[in-house]
Fold LacI family transcriptional regulator.
Amino acid sequence: MKEAVTLKQIAEKLGISVTAVSKALKDYPDISKKTKKLVRKTAKELNYKPNTFAVNLRTKESKTIGLIIPVIVHHFFSNVIKGIIAQAEKKGYLVIILQSNESYELEKKQLDLLMSQRVDGIIISLANGTSNFSHLNDIIAQEKPLVMFDKIAKVVKCSKVIIDDRKAAYMATQHLIDTGCKRIAHFRGSLLPQNSIDRFLGYKKALEDNNMVFDPALVYLCECGDMSFEEGQNNAKKLLNDHNDVDGIFINTDLVAIGAMTEFNKQGIKIPDDISIVGFSNWFMASVISPSLTTIDQPGYQMGKAAFKQLFKEIKAAKKNKTVEPEVITLDTALVKRDSTK
Amino acid sequence: MKEAVTLKQIAEKLGISVTAVSKALKDYPDISKKTKKLVRKTAKELNYKPNTFAVNLRTKESKTIGLIIPVIVHHFFSNVIKGIIAQAEKKGYLVIILQSNESYELEKKQLDLLMSQRVDGIIISLANGTSNFSHLNDIIAQEKPLVMFDKIAKVVKCSKVIIDDRKAAYMATQHLIDTGCKRIAHFRGSLLPQNSIDRFLGYKKALEDNNMVFDPALVYLCECGDMSFEEGQNNAKKLLNDHNDVDGIFINTDLVAIGAMTEFNKQGIKIPDDISIVGFSNWFMASVISPSLTTIDQPGYQMGKAAFKQLFKEIKAAKKNKTVEPEVITLDTALVKRDSTK
DNA sequence: CTGAAAGCGCTTACAG
DNA sequence: CTGAAAGCGCTTACAG
């Protein structure tokens, strides 16, 4: 690798001090215009780039943040990533991305890695496997800015960017009820993540508020752990076997919903005539399959932006040794009505 | 933010020199076992983490690489990202990701940003808007390891990880011919990227080798610039209007193919009876829609892994001031036969 | 086996 | 307006 140009080289070339060069480039008021002009010209000619390693060491900040995400290959998360990166770039921050693969052990290791790297702050969406939060509390104890989004832990005292999963699920279920469904099933995710729990609770509450019987047998867990297309197919098969009186399903994730719809289509079950379906997330495929899928719009890009904005606020505060009260930012969701419901 | 523990603090606590502490932690042979044990114990107790900023400044490497990608929210690219991150993590490298949004200007700026950040190497897939390559040649001139993948520039002298687009497109087209198609159209991407060109050439060659007429009117450009679902719908509509004798289409990308299929389904055109379709990339939705889509499998995850491996090789060589002959790594593709062809 | 010292490339308080 | 000097936290050649 070629050796990079340093302040010293510019200083020697111009016969002035390193101090003067440094100050000139940073536009300090106590440097003459003439010197500034000269220094800038020379720096440009030599293609001078400040050595970030040295700058970081002095300023104790890296202008870099870390992002830990359960899975990258996922429309919602890749939208969040895009939002975070876009916002970070605006503020001159770079983003290091790690994937926890839904594993608690990996998540812990990666958090450690980011701390070693001395990123200025961390944004994280928890792995499904995470039920112990001491690794997160450690970060907070070290006063490193930390923002959680989507898959959060309510008990951890840091800022969070979420949607109101319970309310959204309530809306989805209410829509099924409003369009005439009498017996409504729910495909929920795995047991742990807070948002699966909240969506389940929203579903249950909607039934209760409408004086409908809540039947635990109609709640299908995601056994394999990842919310996949196959999961939707399998649950749809089981449902047809065990409860063919069901006329509506609220499904945790569009991908699973599409899996289920594929199975229903295959078996000649008519959507929405025989069964109405509401998904969750508003993946673009939802508008595209046949019939198009009624779903809850989950604003991934906005969540990414909001998460970085909050982190940035906290990084600035931390620089001044101020602490910020953790904020919970709840973004709006909307029901997108399409053809999978009446 | 809490102040981090330094070597000096450990040294003072133990009443030995900073040098001894540093060497003990790095397991230098000239330190007594007793001292090493003591130092390690203390470091652990104090939760010592080396200050990367200082280490980077001394060692002149950051153990960080940069990745510039046209779009993140895209199944192929997010798979590549996953492959790169996984492989990088194995070797102790972190990955900074930037999105060029298919813009040449942004790509240039971001390359500059990564150079300023002094990443150890860069992996890039070019924006569609990039037709001038001086920003890439600058990187190479500075002897910074650089690997391109998928959307590459043939004239830039650096290592590349690609598939044989021409061969794959040939395979796809040959399959249409073998299954009885007589008049075969092609939906190609935008004009510029090398892989659109190569896929087009493969298509053309297959026709010629089979003594079929190549009709430029049957080649549909992607006007809007992004290869989208709507693009597929629009081109399908046009095709039905202008050339309803076409009985096979080779489509540049699965997403576009699925758009086209949706349009054909809507208009009552039977796939594959009226029109056979072959896509490109083997997005998981290809196996899931109805009818399932015959396509070319493009190994994104593998490409990511291979790209990092090559970059790692070049980073190691650069450290020893050796130069590496650029390598072109071509990964295998395969035709995945499904129900959209006979 | 141990440690004093130089140096990586910056920034900035201080003196002039 | 300018510059000498200290220091950020490491690593490592060198001396003992």
